[in-house]
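Minutes, project check-in
Item: structure for the 159-residue chain
Input as provided by the requester:
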Amino acid sequence: MNAFYLLCGGGLLLVLLLPWDEIHGGALVGGGKWTQSQRTAFNALQRSTFGASFVGIVYGMFCGDLPLIAKPLSLPMFESIGKLSYGAYMYHLVILQVYVAQYKSFVNFYPSHLAFVYLAILLLAFITSYFSYLLIERPFSVLWGKFIQRLTTGDGTSR
């Protein structure tokens, strides 16, 4: 079973590192630029390899076979990030749309500007998600819990 997890980890590393290899001189694949057939093979197999490898790693964490990965991800810090991440995913498009809508013409982007915009949108999305959690999700969760409790225990009135 350990060989399976090594294969999954190797698949993830392969998919993540091979594009950087071509950009930086191609030490792993032929010492230069990729041929068209190598690019086609990579593009055809990249997503399947990533998906299968990722599922294998998640399976290993679920079964308890990979405690070095599962234990740090069980820390309370990651629990709070997990609660906010879906909201950040939902709100980042709205924030990005507002940001893009402010420009009336084409803007030249620089790497430092793109990094700043990326981090600013990420931060704003998580802040918006946090306030959404406080003002909407948590009160409705409490209300839902009371509703379920009333349904299961009965409220003492008959119709």
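Outcome recorded: The chain has a mean pLDDT of 84.
No further action items on this chain.
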